[in-house]
């Protein structure tokens, strides 16, 4: 169903993909929008290694929810900051693309658990009481989304792949 990566020498391992999902704070969720237009939105997320799912939060209504109700298939892309070597133009990045289906969580206990973990990810130094108050303040309008991963792949810049393979990635 999902094609093999054309540039297979640049393919990241599944564990490297998971590490990128765990470390990067934002990605782009792409949905099928109105009239068949793609709808990509930058979004914060939490990847749960225990269940292999990705969680997002947002409002209970709007373009995102309308798109999910129309078609729950989605892709989610995450990439690191990358770097440039002195004198080179190439941005050396690693990226992960996830394909799956997104659903709105309906169970209150699941919603609370997901938003608590998302809050801990972005505000690890905050107290449990402050997180609880912030969640309660926004609870009435809060929607939690869960993405079941059907396919995940990652890729690194060709220069990084060459270095990893011992071929040297930098031009002299």
Descriptive terms for the model:
172 residues; 7 strands; 5 helices; globular; alpha+beta
Beta-strand content: 25-35%
| Distance, first to last CA | 41 Å
**Multimeric organization:** single chain
User: Uncertain segments of ≥5 residues (pLDDT<50)?
Assistant: none
What's the pLDDT, averaged over the residues? 89
In terms of structural class, how would the helical and strand content be classed?
alpha+beta
Question: Rg from C-alpha positions?
Answer: 18 Å
Q: Rough shape?
A: globular
Strand order of the largest sheet: 2-1-5-6-7-4-3
How much helix, percentage-wise, in residues?
25-40%
Largest sheet: 7 strands, antiparallel
Helix count equals 5
* Overall strand count: 7
Run of helices and strands? HEEEEHEEHHEH
